[in-house]
Amino acid sequence: VATPYPDSRNVLARAFLEGAGFEVLTLEGLGIGEEAWQTEGGYLARIPPEVAYRLAREADREAADAVVISCTDLPTLSIVPRLEEALGKPVVTSNVAMFWDCMRRAGLRERTDGFGTLLAEY
pTM of this prediction? Predict the structure, then answer.
């Protein structure tokens, strides 16, 4: 799991995911605290996608089935296909997962290429 958050929030993310039955092998964060996004609106959205790319690479473990990048404000859409190719496994981001869920709730089953395995295959 990769997030932009500090350890205090990552502890909660780990607990949530493990409570849902997922094994979290590692959780890497950028350590960005609440004060940054409260005082500088849209701060996380201004982080270059390449930073998220490197963070996800750091979070990956050979034994992991997938990499999760958490945070709806972190710009990740453009890096998902490249990350999946580099890692050889699915990469799921908050926004892609929400989009997939919205499509399914709306009864849409179309597959969408160019945004990663979740939208292309499921």
Answer: 0.89
